[in-house]
Amino acid sequence: MISRRELLKFAAVGTIALTLVPGTLGEALAAPKDMSLEEALKEHLGATLSDLKESDLIHIKAPTIAESGANVPVQISANVPVDQVEALYIFADANFNPWVTTVEFSPLNGEVFFATRIKLAKTSKVRAVLKMKDGTLLAAAKEVKVTVGGCG
Amino acid sequence: MGKRKLLLSALTGGVILGAVATAQEQVPSHLQELLELGMHPGHAYVDEGRETFNTLKGPNGKTCASCHGEDGAKLEGAYAKMPRYYTDIDRVADLDLRILSCMTKYMGFDPKDKKFRKEFDKWNGRYRVPLATFVASLSNGMEINVKLDDPQEKELYKKGEELWFMRVGARDFSCGICHTVLTGKRIRLQGLPDPVKAKVYTHWPAYRFGSDKMWTMEDRVRSCFKAYFLYEKKWDEKKDWVKKPPPYSDWVIALELYMKYAANGGVVEVPGLLR
Amino acid sequence: MARIGRAIVRVPKRISKGQVFKIQMVITHPMETGRRKDKKTGQPIPAHYIDLVEFFFNDQKITTLRTGPAISKNPYFAVKMKATESGTLIIRYKDNKGGKWEKSVKVSVS
User: Fold this and answer.
1) Predicted complex ipTM
2) Number of independent structural domains in chain A
3) Do A110 and C20 touch (CB under 8 A)?
């Protein structure tokens, strides 16, 4: 049975130890986590792949073949009223962590539209998921092949 | 250069570049889609360059704007005429060298200060790259008009043309093998451009998305030298790699002059976006 | 590039009331994933990326972007907005290491 004195001693040493090495500990805690698409969908949407409803109302514009995985342009637009949308989620299946970004719209956006450049670790499906206010998950996907271009 | 030599070059080039394929397949639209976004990090360099131009004070208290006007008003169209001979340094200068000479002669920066030079000369160089991007953008919409009036310009141009086709280095390469003889073919997924015929210089300085950095033509030429063993001086024993030719050297400016002169008539569109 | 967190924002110069227009921006930022290793030391380069971008128009929040290291270096973002009135668009963005910035731009609607 640990005495209260010993417990307090351990706690004190522990706290001092943590303050002495904040950097390493902080970075260790922040170390990126690998996860599968299923895990990423669960974390961000609380859903499984089968919960996603394929919808042709969502349009993904991305190159079919990318010369560099570091800068893949992605433009998402959808033919649904923006005030019915809670958020847009973008996933890249083959990335170490498939979640890329989440966009929360408001009626003032006027349209469901978002564009950015993303990193793809390798050839992968890029998925756009619209979480509607009524709970439905509309989704579309486009495969982007990642290759290497040129030399130097 | 004789037809026979050209043929020999083509055959040797074809053998060396085993991965080359014909460009019959559709050229990928990755770059096109990136351009369609409308804005890219190169534009952020123009913005940074403008701010540096207007606010960076040299040791003698002057900014670039002190002489050249706020937002570079007096430098509009200057880039379209470069490289050219400058009497105050008695050399044909490209944009990078001109910025260095201006900063050292008129703003008081010390050209021998190793720390300053290391930061300035390096890849994605401090001051140099944003300023070059900004100053080049001041010629946007204008036609490139490089003249060869001065005898030094004429001589350097001839040297540039000669260097373009000169087979050198461990791989016996020349610029011309890839960029004149084998133009139109691919290396992996990259189409080989002909900077001379296609007036490629209109899009330089360019943001290269493959490395996520802004490059000036000087950076591009020097790195080509390094990658293809075109410059044999100073082999680095430790790194087992040949060093790049020194920045602002005649080798580099001669080739830039050759390519820029060929782009005469092309309209400047900077910052470019390339792989 | 010298300054991390610099942003340039583009909106159309002439916007008519009711029009849906594009807001584009580029931020200078390394967007380090935390997975790259320093070539010289072999140590992983710590993750350093923009994780939140918020758009406000006339003090009303219109869009929130939750971003991560999978966004490319020197990120580009574009959203759309319906023009109702003239005003000020303020974009506030931060990264995971405490960097916090804001950029404002005038929107004129006729």
Assistant:
1) 0.95
2) 2
3) yes
